[in-house]
Specification:
single chain, about 450 residues, alpha/beta, seven-stranded mixed beta sheet, binds flavin-adenine dinucleotide
């Protein structure tokens, strides 16, 4: 029986990185992938989604160009042409990931792998069994659906958004997390009549409240209908389109109904319970700071641990584990101040605490905030504001959070994240010279807090 130092189950963002670094550190590494190497991010997530968002934003460019002297031009959009280009790009990345693993010396096994006992891995449907000193669960997550929803078979999840043969005329997006907001924005950008349905009181639950409200109105100004505090009851087939009926009695006609209602870890049916791995009530593998599960020799990283479900986090966890196991590293991944974006139209970038979470944790806060039309949008006559917000600990002057809505917000926040991590103060921002004329200069020129919170000292 072949023996490995590390057997990785799942060739997505985290698994690929862990396997490659472990092999470079001298370990004998096997990796099983049941689908395509690259995982959610590369094949059916971040990458094709962001490329779609780029495509959807051209509508604004064409419209705004007229104010800058360009003649109005006829623009057609060809969904098939975009899909074909996306497929080619995904193929290219898939091949590059595979090459990276192979050149590092990782043995790749196509197929579904399960744990078959302590230190044992089996490939389902084959006679292949392996011994592994260490097993890494990097199986990611899958989109949630409402199992008992009548007409569920008529709905799709994010994975099918990348395989649509034709662009729908009308789409209903159910959900209000970042994936729902991104696809609603993208579809509306392509001219699809878009409705967003969410059972909660506002979109983007974990984001700063001002950002949520501004995004809500920006999406509505772009023609997206947002329905809150209502939920899907049944998806019927109407004469021409699907008819989504809601608890509150609405009937929404759509060619596609996209369920974007969160994701759950892939922990079922892979032998975890059988070997005693602790799974939390949300179905995630419980791990310690070095990503070790409750069973020594079995580790888990990325979405399957449901810590922070983002690609760079999965990659960092995988890299860190490979260095810990095979290069003696002791540093743990720091899960604080992870920047996060919503690649909607407009875009959101965020890092650190929101005003609401900061209020729970700090007795004295200054909130700096400004909202204005960018120079470009003002000139083009586009009704859209940039929102910049800084959360500052008034006792230490430290920057606790930064939230931006507007073009290139994600790029800006990646840079602000460095300052937040380094412990920058509001004074550091004030002392930084502005770069004019930019949107981002407002980050270093806001002087008066919009709000001050001072918690009364306990008697
Ligand atoms: P995955 O990348 O999902 O990889 C898991 C792999 O394991 C899969 O390839 C799966 O086929 C395989 N697998 C599962 N079970 C088995 C088994 N038993 N045997 C063999 N193989 C198995 N994150 C960002 O940072 N930025 C974004 O913009 C962003 N956009 C997203 C957009 C969408 C639509 C979605 C759905 C997610 C997005 N994410 C984004 C999240 C990001 O994709 C995930 O956090 C990331 O892919 C997690 O990596 P992972 O290695 O944990 O899992």
């Amino acid at each position: 029986m072949t023996a490995f130092d590390l057997f990785v189950i799942g060739g997505g963002s985290g698994g690929v990185r862990a396997a490659r670094i472990a092999a470079r550190n001298g370990a004998r590494v096997g990796l099983a992938e049941q689908d395509r190497i690259g995982g959610t991010c590369v094949i059916r997530g971040c990458v094709p989604k962001k490329l779609m968002a780029f495509a959807a934003r051209f509508r604004d460019e064409f419209e705004d160009s007229v104010a800058f002297g360009w003649s109005p031009a006829e623009h057609g959009f060809d969904w098939r042409a975009l899909s074909d280009s996306l497929d080619r790009e995904v193929d290219r990345l898939n091949a590059a990931y595979r090459r990276g693993l192979e050149s590092a010396g990782v043995t790749i096994f196509p197929g579904r792998a399960v744990i078959d006992g302590p230190g044992q891995v089996r490939l389902v449907g084959t006679d292949s069994r392996f011994e592994a000193k260490n097993i890494l669960i990097a199986t990611g997550s899958h989109p949630n659906v409402v199992r008992d929803l009548p007409g569920l078979e008529r709905a799709i999840t994010s994975e099918a958004m990348f395989r649509l043969d034709t662009l729908p005329d009308r789409i209903l997006v159910v959900g209000a997390g970042f994936v729902a907001i991104e696809f609603a924005s993208i579809m509306a950008g392509f001219g699809v009549a878009t409705t967003l349905l969410h059972r909660g009181g506002e979109i983007l639950r974990t984001f700063d409240n001002d950002i949520r409200a501004e995004m809500h109105s920006a999406m509505e100004r772009r023609g997206i209908e947002i329905i809150l505090e209502d939920q899907l009851k049944v998806i019927d087939k109407g004469p021409a389109r699907l008819l989504a009926r809601t608890e509150a009695g609405r009937s929404i006609a759509a060619d596609q109904v996209l369920l974007a209602i969160g994701r759950s870890p892939n922990t079922r049916g892979i032998g975890l319970e059988e070997v005693g791995v602790d799974i939390d009530p949300d179905g995630a593998v419980r791990v310690d700071g070095h990503s070790q599960s409750s069973v020594p020799g079995i580790y888990a990283i990325g979405d399957v641990t449901n810590r922070i479900n983002l690609t760079p986090v999965a990659i960092r966890e995988g890299h860190s584990l490979a260095d810990h196991l095979f290069a003696g590293a002791t540093t743990m991944v720091d899960h604080r101040n992870v920047p996060h974006a919503v690649f909607g139209i407009p875009e959101i970038g965020t890092v650190g605490l929101t005003e609401e979470t900061a209020r729970d944790q700090y007795p004295a806060l200054d909130i700096f905030q400004t909202s204005f039309p960018s120079m470009r949008h003002q000139f083009a006559g586009r009704d859209e504001n940039v929102l910049l917000k800084l959360i500052v600990d008034a006792d230490t002057d430290r920057l606790l959070g930064c939230h931006i809505l507007g073009s290139n917000a994600a790029e800006l926040v990646q840079l602000v994240a460095i300052a937040v991590r380094m412990g920058a103060t509001k004074g550091d921002l004030d002392a930084t010279m502005a770069l004019h004329p930019t949107v981002a200069e407002e980050l270093v020129t806001m002087r008066e807090p919009k709000k001050r919170y001072r918690r009364a000292a306990a008697e």
